[in-house]
Amino acid sequence: MFTNLIQANLTTRVLGREIEHYTWTKSTNEDAWKLIESGANEGTLVITDKQTAGKGRAGRIWVSVPGKSLTTSLILTPGINSRLAGWFPLLTGIAIVDALKELGLNTKLKWPNDIMVYGKKLGGILCESKIQGSILEWVIIGIGLNINEHENELPADLKATSFLIESSSSIQRELVLAKILNNLEWLYNTLKENRDTKILLEFWTERCNHVNKKVKFEADNDTQEGIFVGINNDGAAIMNSNGKETIYTSGDIHIETYTKRLAYISKNKL
Ligand code: BTN
After folding, report:
1. How confident is the prediction along the chain (270 residues), in pLDDT tens digits per residue?
2. For the whole model, what pTM was predicted?
3. Is the dihedral of CA 87, 89, 95, 97 positive or negative?
4. Which of 207, 224, 240 is the last residue of a domain?
5. Measuring from atom 3 of ligand 1, which residue has the nearest CA?
6. 62 CB near ligand 1 (under 6 Å)
7. Is the CB of 92 under 6 A from ligand 1?
8. Using CA atoms, how far apart are residues 106 and 140, in angstroms rounded to an integer?
9. DSSP 8-class letter at 134
10. Do residues 202 and 225 both lie within one domain?
11. Domain residues for 252?
């Protein structure tokens, strides 16, 4: 990855103005925590060409292909109420969907952190934070996107896809990243300065592929079926199961299993 190519495409004031580039590393999120300890500034970006022990959500591992995937972490110092922490993966998701759209690819969001193309995962976001009292002191936004991978380079069982597979053309990862940061800075400032989550809520809802749809929701070893109503002012998920609404701040949504089941029910006229 070329640091100067990212910066040449940036229109931001803060995000990505300082970049730490590692030829290889275990996890850019872990590097970001170390940089915070040594006094990193807001907006500092960590990038790598080869991540060997990437972290995914819920303790899962994140696999990336050297030289082809986009693996990066961004350091923020929001200084806002910690109840807004749930917005960070959502804002990043909006910024990614819009960046990919500018580059000719339509993607959708799956709550809370997946970038999807018709049921296949193109990328994910892992946000980690440090809270002091009720203040969100540090946020690390880890982004993992499949960009220039061919089908045989992605794990088949995970139903993954890449920018290259979906659009039949490769693209510079630096350009994708710069566009994401350009979009994210405005969204981040909107959250931070105006505390205006109404517009952010609208933006996210427009880009989500399962609002008002039947889904399976998995949280704390419990699975519920119901309608995903949307998100609330804190970015938490609102589920409606048998008329009862439940709010979730974390969890996993499964859409496909449910669609398959519906197909089975209609085929067998149950
Ligand atoms: C997920 O969908 O589970 C989230 C994946 C996030 C992966 C990215 S890759 C860059 C950053 N560094 C990490 O160790 N993880 C995140």
Report:
1. 999 999 999 999 999 999 999 999 999 999 999 999 999 999 999 999 999 999 999 889 999 999 999 999 999 999 999 999 999 999 999 999 999 999 999 999 999 999 999 999 999 999 999 999 999 999 999 999 999 999 999 987 779 999 999 999 999 999 999 999 999 999 999 999 876 799 999 999 999 999 999 999 998 888 999 999 999 999 999 999 999 999 999 999 998 644 554 455 555 544
2. 0.93
3. negative
4. 207
5. 56
6. yes
7. no
8. 26
9. T
10. no
11. 213-269
Q: 167's torsion region: left (phi>0), alpha (psi -120 to 50) or beta?
A: alpha
Does 232 lie in the same domain as 197?
no
Ligand 1 and 28: CB distance under 6 A = yes
Domain count, the chain: 2
Task: Round to whole Å and give the CA distance between 254 and 244.
Answer: 19
Q: Residue 100 and residue 92: Cα distance in Å, rounded? A: 12
Ligand 1 nearest atom to the CA of residue 72, by list position: 10
Q: Is the peptide bond between 112 and the residue preceding it cis, with omega within 30 degrees of 0? A: yes
Helix and strand numbers (H, E) in the chain are 7, 15
